[in-house]
């Protein structure tokens, strides 16, 4: 007997000016719920409600079906109203569970979880997978902020071990014939202890880069990754860590970079300044190198501001505009990919490395170069290259070769960002 003949009545709702019919939750059969497979994009109860409504449509996979994309465009407020109306209209569901009224999504999902196992084990598996998926995504986001510590590593490893040893065997025994098994079987393989240890290394790398006022240069993403991420950070001191990055910029590489800048569309008008800047660097005039470099940085950030903001907004601090654009690209990259893409054996690992490069660069600009929350808090220490502190005369200890290299690497990275994302946007 097909699931249509099992149906008692349908729930009607208007979506985007279209009348849509849904199966009630008490009408779910294994055939219906088998469609609701765990999705890596499920991060909260709102996402889960969207998939429940999508797969419970009477005309699922027909021209009359509302696409999952359309459900994703619905605001959380409208979705909550729709989902609550959906559950409240099922009088049998309310009666069976002694509920007077469902008032929000969280309450509705909680009631489904509480009662689902006896009626429909498949949806229960979806909910279990969504919780673990959310934890995986949160672990990755924490690592990108340099905050995935040893305690969180242990929790993540214990969660995936519990999933593999306790939950997965139950899924296998209950649903051997469903396609969803293939998907679920892959989960502990993709997200195992090696994966979470990888996140721990990424987190350590980002926190150490921030501590030493460094970032990953775009010119040497893979080299930096291979040389640094696998090392024991506890015994890796400031000088060694910095040298690993700075040693990549040999005299020949510096000369090559200067030629590229002078011939670039953006910086060709600054060729005289660039030539004098590198003349100062070669002759160990590092204070002059840095000050000249900061004028080039200002020119580039203003150019990016004009191209992205134009005459639409009143001129603001252009450093903030650059940070806005960097953070916009970070968000776009994150939204267009899965957390599994950033594991070294992934085909999209280049995307992960590029994300790390932009994040570490943004951290440096926000916390050091463009920090302007409180001028009095800017400290006159050797590693501080705060723009306001230097150009307004507060800092006097910045004239080192390492800091001059920081400015050179920064300009090179800003030029790469301008070419790839501002002037001629392209996908990674």
Explain this structure:
It is a single chain. The chain has helices at residues 3-6, 30-33, 45-55, 68-73, 76-88, 91-96, 105-119, 121-144, 150-174, 180-190, 193-211, 221-228, 238-246, 251-263, 271-282, 286-309, 318-335, 349-369, 387-391, 401-423, and strands at residues 10-15, 18-23. Strands 1-2 form a two-stranded antiparallel sheet. The protein is built from 20 helices and 2 strands. The protein folds into 2 domains: 3-119, no CATH class; 212-423, no CATH class. By secondary structure, the protein is mainly alpha-helical.
Descriptive tags:
elongated, mainly alpha, 2 strands, two-stranded antiparallel sheet, 20 helices, 428 residues, disordered N terminus, 2 domains
SSE layout:
Blueprint: H1 3-6, E1 10-15, E2 18-23, H2 30-33, H3 45-55, H4 68-73, H5 76-88, H6 91-96, H7 105-119, H8 121-144, H9 150-174, H10 180-190, H11 193-211, H12 221-228, H13 238-246, H14 251-263, H15 271-282, H16 286-309, H17 318-335, H18 349-369, H19 387-391, H20 401-423
Antiparallel strand pairs: 1-2
Helix pairs in contact: 3-5, 7-8, 8-9, 8-11, 9-10, 9-11, 14-15, 15-16, 16-17, 16-20, 17-18
- What number is the mean pLDDT? 78
Which secondary-structure class do the elements indicate?
A: mainly alpha
- Strand segment tally: 2
Q: Count of helices?
A: 20
Characterize the largest beta sheet: strand count, sense, and whether it forms a barrel: 2 strands, antiparallel
Number of domains: 2
Strand order of the largest sheet: 1-2
How much of the sequence lies in strands comes to under 5%
Please summarize what this structure is:
With 428 residues, this protein is mainly alpha-helical. Helix content is 63%, strand content 3%.
